[in-house]
Sequence to fold (714 residues):
Amino acid sequence: MIQNSETARAINQDRSPAPTPQKGFYIRLLLLGSAIMLLSQVIISWFALDRFEQALIPQLNQKAVAVGTALGSQITYASQELGIPINELIGVNDFFQSTLDSNPDLQYLAIVDLNEGVLFQYNTPQGVINSLMGEMQKQPYGSQGSHFTEEIAEYLDSRFPIYVNGNPVADLHVGVSTENIRRQLFTIVFEIIAVIMVSMVVTIEILNLFMSRNILAPTAHIHRVFESGSRGKFTSRLAMRVRNEFGIMVSSLNRLLYELEQRYQDFHFELRELRDAQIDPRISQKISIIIDQTNNRFGFSDRFSILEKTATQIRMPFFLFIFSEEMSRSFFPLFVVGFIPPNPALSYELMISMPITLFMVATFLATLVAGKWTCRVGCSRLFILGIAFAFVGYCGTFLADSYAELILWRCLNGVGYGLIFNACETWIALHSKESNRGHGASAYVGAIFAGYICGPSLGGMLAEYVGQDTTFLISAGLAIVSGFAAYRLLASDPPFHQDLSPSLTGLEPWKVLFGNSRFVSIVFTAIATRTTLSAFLFFLIPLYLNELGHTTIEIGQMMMLYGGIIVIGTPGISRLCDRIRRYFPATVAGAIISGVGLLFVLTSGLIGESRAVLVSIVAVGLGHCLILAPQYAIMQKIVYEHREQIERSVSISIYRFVDRIGLIIGPILAALLIQTTSYTNAIAAIGLIVLVAMAFSVTFANRQRSPVKSAVKA
Fold:
């Protein structure tokens, strides 16, 4: 009976408070601010794009006129000054090819004679050639030195008459593809969309931080004061340094509580005096009963409390760090190519994968020791230490001159990556409650994939315009901002100590955790998820899309879809799982969707290679959206169950250590696959691995349920 009452008390203490009105106000304010910002950016972008479209065609025409005038003068000089007939010129096609290579905006060049037809041409479509002859018969030649532009077979054709000794001998045609113009406009549209999404995500993250610290937390405290005050229990007063409207409101409430307490003490003093002045002991006893009743009904606290730390408090600095790390994601395999020596010791594909793999190995090893460090120095100091490693790694990558240097600096990045991940996961575990573990995990997952939205798209654009190496320097600056945010938000976090000293050390925590079938089950799913992430998204996608002719900007935009899906879907999935408490079925459904989505790339012959890759990215994003938050919630529950035996940070380190195996084997597996087969078959093979791992996960989960069912029946 005592045990049951203690359990019920623990559950009641762990239960999160009921939703408060300010939460709805925050959501409405967030939606309103996002809608206003989105509308303003769309309007500004629309006008800018319209002005650009109006200016683009004249600019291309001017370029065509400049090229046509220059070529026409050279041909005229060769025919008129040197006496070489136009139809006997040598090397014209090669000259046209070099001209078009130097001017990729131009589509074709051709010299047409009224009698002999096309004398020379390069890259001119047959439909344009037929149209040129027809147009020339309608209007043979213009006046000397004149030119005019018209649309021929979806091309803007600029026509330059060539005169020798005052007589027209041929026409030079310079073509600009209207499809190329539309393609450039579409590229700009997607860049604008990417910039809008990045700015929206950053703004929402900043607004989320501001609202949580300066509005939601103080109003939640005020709500608790009034709720407990309605029962006669007035809680401790809140100390707030921020002097905004809510700070003034809290100060006024503190003064009100102080005055109310003083009046209560005066009332008590008068009652005691009245009791002591009585001669009749019965009256004195009745007054004592009244004093005891008022003491039971009303209570005050003279202590000042600070705002309670929450799981979401670490989201902003973690998001900024992930943002900095993901900026190189869309081009890093291509960046490694420039460092591979002429005669590499390994195959070309493995040389590309090694910096990614060793980065994961460094993260793997850092995770192994991060658990004890977290207990000793606290989450905030460990986070800032990880930022220091990451900053040095970014700067070193910017200055790297050789393949060995690149690997060294990326390993330092990996150490910082591992320390920061462990600090964040430990923070989430310490500040999440039983009833909202899924929501706490969604804050962690949301920060990761908000960085996945912003990083690849913006990093791809920066790599295109300022250079790939300079992008790492920008990442270093963003890492410093992340460290400063962690210092301001988490600096007061001391090293934590568990109430009960864990009894297990050495390899015993590993035996206990791997003896838990649920832990083994989520390990299979976690390794498969990480393998998909590192092999498919981090390694194969940049190389495959680059082979298909996509730029780093387009690669970043396609990779951005993965993070966007998870950021949008994770909060709803996590709340649903918290409500129905069905975490494991969500992970199974997610694994099936991601595995089948990777197999969908085999349909590239039917729908096109780029579209098939896009569908696979979307499917993997949907699958991981179902997997990640429930997976972290299951892990935190297991950590909480073993808290008396194993330190929480140690349990998290063990889980993360095993989880990193997928990140390590992913790039190597992908490199070995594309050595022996095509990109599509390699992606499909990873999909099969995901489905097999899901089957093992279900098997071990059923092993855990079977003894429970037997015990219930007994």
Notes: The chain has a mean pLDDT of 77.
